[in-house]
Amino acid sequence: MPCTRLPRSVPCRPTHATTLLRNHRPASGHYIAQLRERASDTAASSSFNLQGSARLQSLPLHIDPSMAASLRWTVAVAAVACVLALQGAVAQLSPTFYDSSCPKLQSIVRSAMAAAVQQEPRMGASILRLFFHDCFVQGCDASVLLDDSPTLTGEKNAGPNANSLRGYEVIDSIKSQVEAACPGTVSCADILALAARDGVNLLSGPTWAVPLGRRDTRTASQSAANSNLPSPSSSAATLVSAFASKGLDSRDLVALSGAHTIGAARCATFRSRVYNDTNINAGFAAKRRQICGAQPGGTDGNLAPLDAMSSVKFDNGYFRNLVAQFGLLHSDQELFGGGAVDSVTAGYARNGAAFARDFVTAMVKMGNISPLTGASGEIRANCRKPN
């Protein structure tokens, strides 16, 4: 929808989603002390000393008030409309797509995600990652949800996904509830997009109007999953290139990487980082080596939080960690390693509201990658298999 169709009273800034801060109160101001305390159980020989980081000291030694525990962001629908106006190819997507055909859709998804996150807070991050891995392979078409069959080789067993992606059962459950309310109406692709949004919001992150109207693919591509999804060892240049190939710029890259403020990673993905990288806080590396052996084997599946301070709270702690060289994955620390995106990372470390705003913009853009609309694709009855 062209921005000129919006009421004159509504500001239209296509590059950013407008956020409204509510329930604001001052933050605790002890982020640095908390980091030091969390690492206090590191081996005595550890050289962990957060205050020694000159780059971190150049930042304000308080959490941005916008990231206080009580913070909730509400994102204006008008801002999402402006983002969509820049992307004519997805003009058929609309936040109101199911308002008449399935009016209870969003409440069904929200309730199911609330139950899933309450049972396991990490699930919010898992569903968000599932959405990312879907959109980066063939577009946001629910291809990642398809099981292998005699006639289809899916994406679940691709290298970046096998023994890693999770949350399929949550999407199955939501789909069953939606089918009971609105048979044959809502795509698995749209359910995944809504669930990802709600997973973020339920962990104290922003909310936004999700453009809807995607349809489900009948195909999947394991080879595309292997080649399109960035790895934990990717360089900054590789990441920028991978995101650019999907129509996402370097700011989108950094903002979407901020999803690592929630969730966890397996030892196999950060082993090389904690044993071989030099741009890592020594005490932090020592602490992670305690749960991740130097050789592949029994510790491969051990988990560590991607954000050491607040892995079940969506905030800007991830970026403050990067400035302190606390990035868990090599690809994380590449966002603050002397390259072109350092300034974006440092900006988000200082300003949580800016991160939240840009994350929403980037999520809408990512959700618009090559959707199937109109008569293309189908509405699956079961997210795991084509009709």
Helix and strand topology:
Blueprint: E1 19-22, H1 31-38, H2 54-57, E2 72-75, H3 77-85, H4 105-119, H5 122-135, H6 168-181, H7 188-202, E3 206-207, H8 222-228, H9 236-244, H10 250-257, E4 264-266, H11 267-276, H12 282-289, E5 303-305, H13 317-323, H14 330-333, H15 342-350, H16 352-367
Parallel strand pairs: 2-3
Antiparallel strand pairs: 1-2, 4-5
Helix pairs in contact: 4-6, 4-7, 5-7, 10-16, 11-12, 13-15, 15-16
GO biological process, one term: response to oxidative stress
Organism: Paspalum notatum var. saurae
Family: Belongs to the peroxidase family. Classical plant (class III) peroxidase subfamily.
Question: How would you sum up this structure, described in words?
Answer:
The chain has 387 residues and is mostly helical. It has a domain at 93-230: Orthogonal Bundle (Peroxidase, domain 1), CATH 1.10.520. The protein contains 16 helices and five strands. The strands form two sheets. It has a three-stranded mixed beta sheet. A two-stranded antiparallel ribbon has the order 4-5. Helix 13 (317-323) packs across helix 15 (342-350) and helix 15 crosses helix 16. The longest helix is centred in the C-terminal third of the chain and has 16 residues, at 352-367. Residues 1-90 have low confidence and may be disordered. Heme b binds at residue 260. Ca(2+) 2 binds at residues 261, 307, 315. Residues 92-387 form the Plant heme peroxidase family profile domain. Keywords: Calcium, Disulfide bond, Glycoprotein, Heme, Hydrogen peroxide, Iron, Metal-binding, Oxidoreductase, Peroxidase, Secreted. The record marks 129 as: Transition state stabilizer.
